[in-house]
Amino acid sequence: MRYILANWKMHFTTMQAVTMLNRLDDKIDYHKNVLLVLFPPFTSIDRVKDHILSQKNPKKFNLGVQNIYFEDEGAFTGEISAPMAKELADYVIIGHSERRIYFNENDQLIAKKMQSAIRNDLTPVLCIGENATQHTASHAKRVVLAQLTNGLANLTADEVKDIIIAYEPVWAIGTGKFAEPDELAHMIKDIRSCIYDLYGEKAKQVKLLYGGSVEADNASSYLKIKGCDGLLVGSASLNYHKFAKIVECATNLDL
Ligand code: PGA
Fold first, then answer.
1. Is 200 close to ligand 1, i.e. is its CB under 6 Å away?
2. Strand, helix or coil for residue 201
3. What atom in ligand 1 is closest to the CA of residue 7?
4. Region 171-189: what's the mean pLDDT?
5. Taking the C-alpha atoms of 167, 169, 170 and 174 in order, what is their torsion angle to the nearest 10 degrees?
6. Ligand 1 centre and the CA of 73: distance in Å?
7. Among 6, 61, 177, 238, which residue's Cβ finds the most Cβ atoms within 10 Å?
8. DSSP 204
């Protein structure tokens, strides 16, 4: 199974989101080995979900939210909890670099969000990745494995086995610079052996994705890497031609 995730970030009004979904529905065929998850802004999820349910194949698109708070309820103005998100979606992005950078999210907060997601039956997509300075200083592995270990703190092997991890080097996000497949293959190996050391055999089931300036012309080179289960797509997911082409790369792997 290949996972192709579309992170729409803070883009699209409800009308635009529904239009996008309909265009994607026209362009993309359901494929049993490709799991598509759309992450619209909170405001449009309800309507997008209605439209998914009314489509010919409601299994073609799955839904996720871009963030949750770690408490289930309470006086936390402006926040959305995992039980609220679960009413509409099955996946949640946790620890995206934009949340780490612009909203000061640290590993401890991220670990609590991971627990909250799992407690409420949402599949978390834990994002990890080094920034440009760390990359240039050859600290990528150390940084990434620390984010991974801290983000998974307090989870059991049974909980970890069902999560998704997205390796997204910060210097590659929205920049047009992307990781070389060779470089990525090394990082994937390092991440996989780290979770294996921590959680043993069950951790082999963890899904591991790449994200960072994914486009139709580089998607296949990542999808072919051993241990890479899919892609988390940002900018290119805002254009239905481009996103459909990326999905096609995943579908074609099977042919
Ligand atoms: P990008 O974003 O594809 O625009 O680089 C990826 C992400 O932020 O998940």
1. no
2. helix
3. 9
4. 92
5. -90
6. 30
7. 6
8. G
Ligand 1 site, residue 168, Cβ cutoff 6 A = yes
Q: Is the per-residue pLDDT at 254 higher than 90?
A: no
Rounded distance between C-alpha atoms, residue 162 and residue 79, angstroms: 25
Burial class (CB in 10 A: 0-12, 13-18, 19+), 255: exposed
For ligand 1, whether the C-beta of 159 sits within 6 Å is no
**pLDDT per residue over 232-250, tens digit each?**
999 999 999 999 999 999 9
C-alpha distances in Å from residue 8, one per residue of 77, 158, 216: 23, 30, 17
Query: Where in the chain does DSSP place strands (E)?
Result: 2-7, 34-39, 62-65, 91-94, 123-128, 164-167, 207-211, 230-233
Q: Which whole-number Å values give the CA distances from 115 to 23, 118, 124, 126, 133, in the listed order? A: 35, 5, 9, 11, 30
The residue whose CA has the least distance to atom 2 of ligand 1 is: 234
Rounded-to-integer distance, Cα 179 and Cα 172, Å:
7
7 ligand 1 Cβ < 6 A: yes
Known catalytic residue at 168? yes
Mean pLDDT taken over the chain: 96
Residue reference for tokens 């051993």: 226
Enter the DSSP assignment of 80: -
* pTM for the full predicted model: 0.97
Q: Specify the ligand 1 atom closest to the Cα of 178.
A: 5
Q: Which of 96, 105, 130, 135 is catalytic?
A: 96
pLDDT at residue 62 is higher than 60: yes
Instruction: Give the pLDDT of residue 18.
Output: 98
